[in-house]
Design brief:
The complex is a heterodimer. Chain A is mainly β. In chain A, strands 5, 6, 7, 8, 9, 10, 11, 12, 13, 14, 15, 16 and 25 form a 13-stranded antiparallel sheet that branches. In chain A, strands 18, 27, 29, 30, 31, 35 and 36 form a seven-stranded antiparallel sheet that branches. Chain A has a five-stranded antiparallel sheet with strand order 3-4-26-19-23. In chain A, β29 and β30 (455-458) form a beta hairpin. Chain A is elongated. By secondary structure, chain B is of the alpha+beta class. Helices cover 16% and strands 50% of the residues of chain B. Chain B contains eight helices and 23 strands. Chain B has helices at 2-25, 35-38, 80-83, 96-102, 145-153, 240-249, 263-267, 336-353, and strands at residues 59-62, 68-75, 84-86, 92-94, 106-124, 127-144, 162-164, 169-188, 191-213, 216-219, 226-239, 272-284, 289-303, 309-323, 357-359, 363-366, 370-380, 383-394, 397-410, 414-423, 426-438, 441-447, 461-472. The longest helix of chain B has 24 residues, at 2-25. Chain B is elongated, with a radius of gyration of 27 Å. The chains are: A mainly beta, B alpha+beta. The interface between A and B is large, with 48 and 52 residues.
Chain lengths: 550, 493
């Protein structure tokens, strides 16, 4: 008989099992409990959080411009070869500091006698001529002076009891082709002596001298008749003076002038941070630029040219023949122009190479010059000067980046401090990647010092060569043909980091040398480049205490 | 016939093995998990997973607002106990390393809620019609293993490699769904099929949709330079005042302190229209074997500004940005004020590169499409064994889960089922479902993982689906015992 499903019958086994499962499930559901304590986050224990982090810190690409920090000093030729040039004007003097026209006092005294002249009549006296010799301050011979400024004064004092007309004529004093002609009226008002003051502006006049700095002044007197008695002989003192004469041009002979170039110096800043080391530069030069717009010959002499560092001094000795040097000067057809004379001291005519190789911070220069040097002929030598004439001396130090360097040490100081959060760092690794296109090896060290500049620690232990020279090509170019990559890593432990909490400064010490321990000759080009990347890896270690913990 | 049956059995076993392997490799699902309901056709709502699953009742109407209430949480990354464990001293220990070891390459946390407001259906000869009005909220937050590992262990583990952070995404949607279903019996070459479909009209309320995320960060093993690619776009459709407040945070606008949320405007927003379709087929091979296949929620919603909501699109597309570090010359040896100024300039430059652009363009967000493949073996008229292979589509990938169940009908009053599922990378999901019918009154409850009640620390899936329906015409006719004497045994199944 087949089983027929019915609630009234007993369930088959599988139904019983299933029913029991359902009942069990129901009971379990009712009895199920979520362990609340497992979700009580107030019971969360403290835990250690220790991520390991990496980051790129610094990426710098440096060229020659960046390294030398002053584009104006770097000169680049058509082949990108670099030369460092320092130039300073060490001496400059204008003509008004060298030549001066002193004030001239003449005081012509005219004595004359007349007869009684009826009123309404006049009497013309014979021309009275004064020959005056201009004074000079340095034995100048004046042929002509183009006057820029100045005054001709007449302080007349006379005992003539008649009215006079005084015609003054100076044939050698011309303006627009006309000689100086002025009328001074002498008016007798009943009392003696009669004093008259007249002055005349001399701007624009040309004063031409006859030989011996002489000029003539002609006076034509006209005496006017009146009813006054005749008290001849009379005296008329003209009281002439040339005052504050400024010139546009002077032609003549300026005399022998000694020019002393006071001591001055040219800073060579590239060597400022040098500590030690030796440099061999293949072809350094010092150039002296003399610019002269005075129309007269000048001899130039270097008394002292010295290369000076903090620990050494080398006198530069010129070997040029002829010595002293004769300076160029403009000719009459070059009035207003400045002529340049360049004297070059290099390794063929001086010891300049030895001088530069001490890494001098500056060059000191004392020189002098003599205008119209002896022998000269004051009567016949012809000079000229204009109001803008001047003479100047520039000293230029030329340092071509061609040579070699060994043990060349540099040091710089930078303020630096670490955050107190450094205690959460378990260790640090610095990773320095350099791709060096310069022909230089570099060893570097960083010293950490406290506020008293006492050394606390150093970064690289031991000191490491962090930069390797690029591959250098052959002569004559000595150019880097391929850069060199170098990777340097250094680990700093937690103890060392904690020791650096008091760091206030870092000393960056680096030692440069050209390839092969400074024995390879190199040249520097503007397209050299060094790429520096610094990455850091830090192991952080800190304990986190949940805030809800009791 | 027997050879035919053997072939089917062999094919089915192979499919099951392959799917288990696939399921075991990458287990996750993020939308409504309803595997138990799928295999209980006595519950009318089972047709929501295959529109060709014909309800037993000739007519049903859902209890208003209580015909189908679903809530579910899922996380395929790790279980609670993988992260937190109680020690012997009663304190709780944080086990991050252990948790990270349990993560998949891409992990998700999902939460879904669904409530049916109104539903009914009726049979008409060989056809069946149904109607449903529902409110749905779906959400999912994705995160990659690399992100958690990065935050806990730091980035040095990725030296020489690339962190894949493309798995970071947020997707959430709230919307109304009105659906009309139809299914029809079809006989093809003497085989019985049921074809069904459901058309869905959708009205969106709020949405966050990660349209794209290609974020990667690579670390060079030589100089630790970081190479970043950020190709992402996140779209949002939120209430106007919320959008303005987000704009103020991003510096686009001043902050709106009067955050007035109007719930009426929000729930009656008719601007965001969408459309979806479900398609399914049911094939009864014979009295023992039947098969089903369906695709559900194939469609989208178009989100746009209007009706009290605003659209925002946030995107960035930086390709191969490499950070090598700061320039030495800008900082070393400089005064503090200059260092600070140069540092701020450097940070501003980086921020400008990663600047997120904001637009207000409408967009389409797809629905979470699913496929169901079902095989049912009828042991007896009251006992059935089912195999369900479900796949969730997301981001152009298929995420499968697998369920085996046993269902029993105790006459017309009670039906129940138990299941075992492999889902969300967990092999411990015991499901249970029960439907109790008292006359037309039907109460049902189902869960895909009742085991979470006993072991919540170890669970990765928790859901419950319950409801009340009024069903009519579902009872079996009583047999005429007088005719049974000569009736072949097979015909009684």
């Amino acid at each position: 008989m087949r089983k027929i499903y019915s609630w009234k019958n007993n369930f088959p086994v599988k139904e019983k099992v299933f029913s029991l499962f359902l009942i069990l499930m129901t009971v379990l559901v009712q009895q199920s409990c979520i362990k609340k304590d497992d979700f009580d986050f107030k019971k969360m224990a403290s835990f250690e959080y220790s991520p390991n982090l990496v980051a790129p810190i610094i990426h710098t690409s440096l060229t020659m411009d960046d390294l030398l920090a002053s584009n104006q000093l770097i000169h680049e030729d058509a082949n990108n070869f670099l030369t460092l040039i320092y130039r300073t004007t060490v001496f400059s003097k204008k003509i008004d500091e060298l030549i001066d026209i002193p004030n001239q006092t003449i005081n012509t005294s005219i004595n004359f006698s007349t007869v009684s002249i009826p009123a309404g009549d006049s009497l013309i006296m014979p021309t009275y001529t004064t020959a005056y010799t201009f004074n000079s301050s340095n034995g100048e011979r004046f042929d002509s002076i183009f006057i820029k400024s100045g005054v001709l004064d007449f302080n007349i004092n006379g005992d003539v009891n008649h009215n006079l007309k005084i015609n003054v004529n100076i044939p050698g004093l011309l303006k627009n082709g006309q000689s100086f002609k002025k009328i001074i009226n002498y008016n007798y008002t009943g009392s003696l002596p009669v004093t008259i003051h007249n002055n005349f502006d001399l701007s624009g006049y040309k004063l031409t001298f006859s030989s011996g700095n002489n000029i003539n002044i002609n006076y034509d007197l006209t005496v006017y008749g009146d009813n006054n008695s005749d008290y001849s002989p009379y005296n008329l003192n003209m009281g002439e003076s040339f005052t504050d004469i400024g010139f546009n041009m002077i032609f003549g002979f300026m005399g022998t002038i000694d020019l002393d170039f006071n001591q001055d110096s040219v800073d060579v800043s590239i060597f400022n941070n040098t500590l030690s080391g030796s440099i061999y530069l293949a072809d350094p030069k010092v150039r002296l630029y003399l610019n002269n717009s005075l129309g007269l010959p000048i001899n130039f002499t270097i008394n002292t040219l010295a290369a000076m560092s903090s620990s050494n001094t080398v006198l530069v000795t010129p070997f040029v023949n002829p010595y002293p040097w004769q300076i160029n000067y403009p000719s009459y057809s070059e009035i207003g122009q400045s002529k340049e004379t360049i004297f070059t001291l290099d390794s063929t005519n001086s010891n300049i190479r030895q001088a530069v190789n001490i890494s001098p911070q500056y060059f000191s220069c004392i020189a002098n010059a003599q205008a119209n040097p002896l022998p000269n002929n004051p009567l016949t030598d012809k000079n000229f000067v204009i109001d803008t004439s001047k003479i100047s001396l520039d000293v230029e130090v030329e340092i071509p980046f061609h040579g070699s360097v060994s043990d060349y040490a540099l040091q710089d100081t930078v303020d630096f401090s670490l955050s107190e959060d450094i205690e959460k760092i378990d260790w640090l690794i610095f990773r320095v990647n350099t791709l060096n296109g310069f022909p230089l090896d570099a060893t570097m060290q960083i010293y950490f010092v406290d506020s008293l500049e006492k050394k606390i620690d150093s970064l690289l232990v031991p000191e490491e060569q962090v930069i390797t020279s690029g591959v250098i090509g052959p002569a004559p170019d000595y150019k880097v043909v391929s850069p060199t990559h170098k990777l340097t890593t250094d680990k700093i432990s937690h103890d060392r980091l904690m020791n650096m909490i008091n760091v206030k400064k870092i000393y960056i010490y680096s030692k440069l040398e050209t390839a092969n321990s400074g024995n390879t000759i190199i040249k520097m080009y503007s397209d050299y480049n060094i790429d520096i990347k610094i990455g850091i890896q830090a192991q952080i270690k800190t304990t986190v205490v949940p805030s809800n913990n009791d | 016939m027997i050879k035919h049956m053997k072939v089917i059995k062999i094919i089915s076993v192979k499919c099951i093995i392959i799917f288990i392997l696939i399921a075991g490799y990458n287990q996750q699902s993020f939308s409504q998990q309803d595997n138990m309901i799928h295999l209980l056709p006595v519950i009318p709502q089972s047709a929501y997973t295959n529109p060709a699953f014909k309800p037993k009742a000739k007519f049903y109407i859902g209890f208003p607002a209580l015909s189908s209430v679903y809530g579910g949480l899922a996380h395929n990354g790790f279980a609670y106990r993988h992260l937190i464990q109680r020690r012997a001293d009663d304190s709780l220990e944080l086990r991050m390393d252990n948790m990270i070891g349990k993560l998949a390459n891409t992990n998700y946390v999902s939460a879904n809620v669904s409530e049916e407001i109104l539903a009914f259906g009726f049979k008409a000869r060989k056809s069946y019609f149904s109607f449903s009005l529902s409110e749905k909220i779906t959400s999912r937050v994705g995160y990659p293993k690399d992100l958690i590992s990065l935050l806990w262990k730091g980035n040095s583990q990725f030296i020489g490699e690339t962190m894949d952070l493309s798995g970071i995404n947020i997707n959430a949607a709230a919307y109304h769904e009105i659906s009309i279903g139809y299914m029809h019996d079809v006989r093809i070459k003497n085989q019985n099929f049921v074809f069904g479909g459901r058309i869905k009209m959708l009205r969106g309320l709020m949405n966050v949709y990660t349209q794209k995320n290609d974020l990667t960060i690579g670390i060079d093993d030589n100089d630790y330079a970081h190479t970043t690619n950020t190709g992402f776009q996140v779209n949002m459709c939120v209430p106007d005042t919320l959008a303005m407040n987000i704009d103020s945070i991003n510096g686009k606008d001043t902050i709106n302190e009067d955050f007035n949320f109007n719930p009426v405007d929000f729930f009656t927003n008719n601007s965001n229209k969408g459309f979806g379709i479900d398609l399914g087929v049911f094939y009864k091979l014979n009295s023992s074997f039947s098969f089903g296949a369906s695709i559900v929620d194939l469609g989208y919603i178009k989100w746009q500004t209007g009706g009290g909501s605003s659209v925002r699109n946030y995107s960035s597309n930086v390709q191969d940005f490499v950070f090598y570090g700061i320039d030495f010359n800008d900082f070393f040896g400089k005064d503090d004020s200059i260092v600070k100024e140069n540092f701020n300039e450097a940070m501003d430059s980086i921020a400008d590169i990663f600047n997120v652009s904001t637009t207000k363009n409408s967009y389409k967000a797809p629905l979470p499409t699913k496929i169901y493949l079902t095989a049912i073996y009828t042991i007896t008229k009251h006992d059935k064994v089912g195999l369900l292979m479900r796949g969730d589509f997301f981001n152009k990938r298929l995420y499968p889960s697998f369920t085996a169940s046993y269902n029993k009908w105790f006459g017309n009053m009670l039906s129940a089922g138990v299941s075992y599922s492999v889902m969300n990378r967990s092999y411990m999901n015991l499901g249970f479902a029960m439907a109790f019918n008292l006359g037309p009154w039907q109460t049902y409850v189902a869960t895909d993982n009742i085991y979470c009640l006993f072991d919540p620390e170890g669970a990765r899936t928790a859901n419950v689906h319950f409801g009340i329906n009024f069903i009519f015409g579902y009872k079996e006719a009583k047999p005429n015992y007088s005719l049974l004497r000569d009736t072949p045994k097979e015909s009684l199944k």
